[in-house]
Amino acid sequence: MEYRIGLIHGDGIGPEIVDEAKKVLDAVCEKYGHKFEYTNLLLGGASIDVHGVPLTDETIEEAKKCDAVLMGSIGGDAKTSPWYKLSPDKRPEAGLLKIRKSLGLFANLRPAYLYQELKDACPLKEEIIGEGFDMLIMRELTGGLYFGERSTVEENGIKKATDTLTYSEPEIRRIAIRAFDIARKRKKKVTSVDKANVLDSSRLWRAVVEDVAKDYPDVTLEHMLVDNCAMQIVHNPCQFDVVLTENMFGDILSDEASMVAGSIGMLSSASLNETKFGLYEPSHGSAPDIAGKNIANPIATVLSAAMMLRYSLDLDKEAEAVENAVQKILKDGYRTVDIMSEGCKKVSTSEMGDLLVKALE
Questions:
Q1: CATH number, domain 1-111+263-361
Q2: What is the pLDDT of residues 308-355, one digit of tens each?
Q3: Exposure of 136 in the CB half-sphere (CA atoms within 13 A)
Q4: Catalytic residue among 32, 146, 188, 354
Q5: Which residue of the set 134, 255, 338, 354 is catalytic?
Q6: Residues 227, 314, 316, 332: which is the catalytic one?
Q7: Known catalytic residue: 251?
Q8: Residue 33 in marked binding region
Q9: H helices within 185-296, ranges in order?
Q10: 189: phi then psi, degrees, rounded to nearest 5
């Protein structure tokens, strides 16, 4: 099969980690007889340097022609980079918001998986993590507080700021359907997280999710208030499978879950629209302090590529092969500097990519 893949190398360590993920994707093509046609796209600081803006309309149109897009990290050092002397709408991160909206990417998937080989990095006690956990935070990405109307006014010398949290039934329904569909491929459980004891938007959220659940009798649905969920992630993370929630709650909970997993350098993510198209990227930042040193961990980007194979290209067998290669390399004791521990073998960014290719072969 032939697929068109957009590559956004990004900023900081982005080019290094994307190159290693491409190396692994090429090995997948060689092993399984596929063909990937790559299109290089600019976003973030790299786009500012060339075009003066973090994202051009031409890049958006090229991305729409792809089956999926794999992206490195975006942004730089806010204290020293000239990008951050620009107005907020011209900075690297503004390109991320624009491409998500332009491509209709409403569902953000953030896995938090604890590898047994890395359980010493987990901040939780061993009796809590047991045999490990495997949860998927599904965050609604284009609605809610972050996209509602906002204003700051001054009345009688007192400033007053307002942010509006709005959700419509169709917005909730489409993310709920995606959550239940993905749960069917996993452990068949959805935990819907809201604040229905206080917020009208959450009460609508809960009602719509319950209605969607009627079409998935094989999937267990439970509701959990967001403050309780934040506690449960550190108290008993093993109870979760798919955690479905709105934009702001998902932003907070996914970061919490990533730290419980021990290393954000291992965590992938995906943003999907209503078709098979998705934008795939590591959960970590651009780490400009180590850019160009060949020491960054490419595994999160490689696992993001595996998510791309599974969710956008329907290549489940190939995705599993990449995930198994990561597992094998960790079991064999190879580590980049961020996950290095005593008795293991430290490798560079490019060496980790080579090892993953060899494990695939």
A1: 3.40.718.10
A2: 999 999 999 999 999 999 999 999 999 999 888 889 999 999 999 999
A3: 25
A4: 146
A5: 255
A6: 227
A7: yes
A8: no
A9: 200-213, 226-235, 247-260
A10: -145, 135
